[in-house]
Amino acid sequence: MRKTSLFEILESISLFANFSRDEIAELIPLLVERKFPKGSRVINRGETGDSMFVIKDGEVTIWSDNNTNLGNLPAGSFFGELALIDRLPRSATVECVEESVVYELSKNAFDPLIAENISISNKFYSNCLHETFKRFRNIVTNFTFSQSNLREKTAALDEISKDLQHAARMQRLFIGTDFLDSSESLPGGIRRSYLYKPCIEVGGDFINVRKINDSLVSFLIADVSGHGVSAAMITGVLKSAFTIYSESFSDKPALLIKTLNRHLSLMVNSYFATCFYAVVDVKNKLITMAKAGHPYPLFWRKNKGTFEKIDVKGVALGIVDDAEYGEFVIDYSPGDKLLFFTDGIIEQTNAERKMYGENLLSQSFINHMDKTSHDILENLFADMSEYSENKPIDDDITLLMCEF
Are the CB atoms for 89 and 48 separated by under 8 Å? Predict the structure, then answer.
């Protein structure tokens, strides 16, 4: 019988799906081979996780916190993968059924690779999200058709909750908050700030701020139809496409939006997304914008003390395969502000089912204009919450502000 190579094992693992042969080759030197005797434990529930494992030879069994056997994993399987993301305590114990050989991939070894290679990073996080949702669906199915006792059902619900928490952490990676939260300065002294409020554990909004070069900065905000697990999965598709195509079209808003539309139309046929993309040229003090069915941002002219109208057309992503998109160019001056938002905030309703609307959002923006960046966004959300009498939000709400 032909012995399976490490290369073939990695290629067959869902976490590394769509990795090129060269990318797999970059992973291999990071793996450390370890041997475990029968009955020994590879990981213990409650200990801090800092590695994932791939079984080369042998078999392991997984035990939950109440000593329930969750099943066995044969050679070629993997476990502990979420430790590469969050370093949280292990949720289960893994014990060797027989003498086993595993490959260990540590977070310390993996982090530099994904930091230096955006393609590997994007594929890995996308695959993690799909793997989490696949397990989530399996748990829901088993729970729905289970004839087991109440304690088993409660355990299943606990697993669902854990999977949603993992999905939420990966969702935040897709949103790109690491860069948004960093202190790295943008060209031209531009300041950015954001507020993200999903209506449930995971959502369908996506934002990105990117330094293209020393004179260009891009701002993206997108909103996938619906919310929850399904919307978050489509957000992953959109994030992946944006990462890939922005390498070539980041300074061409209309062409980038058109390419994203074609990609989403081909990949997903039952969802759509709205999107607004802007490129700021700090050298010439110009903003070039393109949109796909998304609400217009609020552009505040400080020297005029009023909002400037933005006029650019474009159908939402994923509706018309060959849709065309236009561009709108506007100049800016020091003190101007540009507020992007998803429709969750303007469509939030009060007790009389009247929507908050753009007029009230605009007035709130004016009222808090002189506050600090973070306080402006927090007050915008607070004013909307007061209008709706603090009822739970109906849709994901995202605010992204650019200050010149």
Answer: yes
Q: How far apart are CA 146 and CA 154, in angstroms?
A: 12
Each domain of the chain, given as residue ranges in start order, spans 6-113, 117-169, 176-403
Pick from 140-154, 263-277, 375-389: least confident: 140-154
Mean pLDDT in residue range 171-180: 52
Backbone angles phi, psi at 316, to 5 degrees: -60, 155
Q: How many residues does the chain have?
A: 404
pTM assigned to the model:
0.62
* Spatial separation of the C-alpha atoms in residues 277 and 254, rounded to whole Å: 8
Q: Where does 13-149 have alpha helices with state H?
A: 21-27, 107-116, 118-145
- CATH number for region 6-113: 2.60.120.10
Structure tokens at 65: 């916190």
Answer for the pair 305, 282: CB distance below 8 angstroms, yes or no. no
Q: How far apart are CA 198 and CA 224, in angstroms?
A: 12
Q: What angle do CA 320, 210, 289 make, to 5 degrees?
A: 45
**176-403 maps to CATH 3.40.50.1110:** no
Contact present, 113 and 1 (Cβ < 8 Å): no
Give residues with Cβ within 8 angstroms of 111, minimum separation 6.
Answer: none
Q: Which has the closest alpha carbon to 252: 272, 284, 224, 281?
A: 281
